[in-house]
Amino acid sequence: MRPGDRWTLAGARWSRGGGDGAFTVTDPATGETVGEVPVGTAVDVAAAVAAATRAAPGWAATAPAERGAALHGAASAVERHADDLAALVTAEMGKPADDALGGVRAGIGTLRQYAELGPLHGGRSLQGGWSAADFMAREPLGLVAIITPWNDPVAIACGLIGAAVVTGNTVVHKPSERTPHTGALLTELLAGSLPAGVLNMVSGDGTTGEALAGHPDLDAIAHVGSTRTGRRVAELAAASGAKTLLENGGADPLIVDADVDPAWAAEQAATGCFANAGQICTSVERIYVHGAVAKDFVAALTARAQALRPGPGDDPSTELGPLVDERHRSQVHEQVEKAVADGARLRAGGRIPDGPGCFYPATVLDYCTDHMAVMAEETFGPVAPVRAVASFEEALDRANRSRYGLAATVLTRDMAHAQRAWRTLKAGTVKINAVFGGAPGGAATPRRASGRGFGYGPELLDEMTAVKVVHLETDVS
């Protein structure tokens, strides 16, 4: 199931949209063409914004229970086409099939979560005098632009769009230019259960995103993606006064304490560094390992990296899919080469393989230093840079020497160390003894250069609403 020429949705009208510009999406595993996509114009953006504006009053006035029921319907539509969406994710960005389907199922679960929580979302009241009452009511922000990434295009879009529409907002969705077919099909499935104009869409590249984020009629912009783009979104929002929800890049540290089994720690590190070829917002980007276990840890991590089976995402035996495109692979390899030139020791990977596609091997580097880009910046590839440290305190100190603050992981048997870590680390999420995981409905709020505002969880409903304070006097005598 492909979107065909349905690339722009404004109200009830789908069209191809775009002007003279277009771009080609290729399968990163084979190099074959997935499709050609028009570049949405400012005219397309204006039409989508106008449709969302027209729909806003009626949707805001719709009973919360009705909005929740509509979102349940949208979740059912996505569920019916889960395999189609997963296949598009694999074709466009290379994610192994099981992981791609897992992302779609996570999105469905998030839609149903918000369908249930949305009607229960409210404010609070205060008792003043006998004839007066004060209350804080939650109202929709209004018109929300949602700009979604390519690395988990269904789950993230479902979370942001679901929270926005269930709280009474209307939306203009701009999917990543790297996964536009996935974004278009997802929008079509969601919009089919909503009144016309509640969910709209424009496809395109960065120029389309710029036109959308800079539109003066927006009330909020939610963006998940690179730090550079997030900063530009913040600049545009500052000019219009739109609220921003930003999840930008990260350089998430992993700390390995002296008292853990180095083989187990290496398995955790391999998962954190190599899952989805390292293309996860909260991937492990730098590792600080206590010198007492560093040698065994690096040896085990190297063996695990060398054992991973690379291949196309539609092969069930694949453990490491390709990077999203050649441009991204070049950026990852450049960081690795520069680290080696600056003294890092290459233990595994680090070389671009022959053949088609954008594959990059699981790579392990040790003797890394904090000034190397592979440690200081977000690599977003299957790279594990390691630095040995003399103490747990040194690891905490080095982990905090970053402009980013998305997430951090600590592996330790010492609960005093665990307590000190979550108290000390300057990150929105701190994970103890597991690189991934967390309870359903968990929220996250990035810090510093990694962004602002809650993403996911019940708290996202707060972010998608504004508080109105009302003082009501009933005695008019």
UniProtKB/TrEMBL annotation:
Alphabetical UniProt keywords: Oxidoreductase
Protein source organism: Actinomadura nitritigenes
Residues covered by the Aldehyde dehydrogenase domain: 21-470
PANTHER family: ALDEHYDE DEHYDROGENASE-RELATED
Oxidoreductase as UniProt keyword: yes
InterPro entries linked: Ald_DH/histidinol_DH, Ald_DH_C, Ald_DH_N, Aldehyde_DH_dom
SUPFAM superfamilies reported for this sequence: ALDH-like
Presence of keyword Cell inner membrane: no
Name by which UniProt lists this protein: Aldehyde dehydrogenase
Lineage: Bacteria, Bacillati, Actinomycetota, Actinomycetes, Streptosporangiales
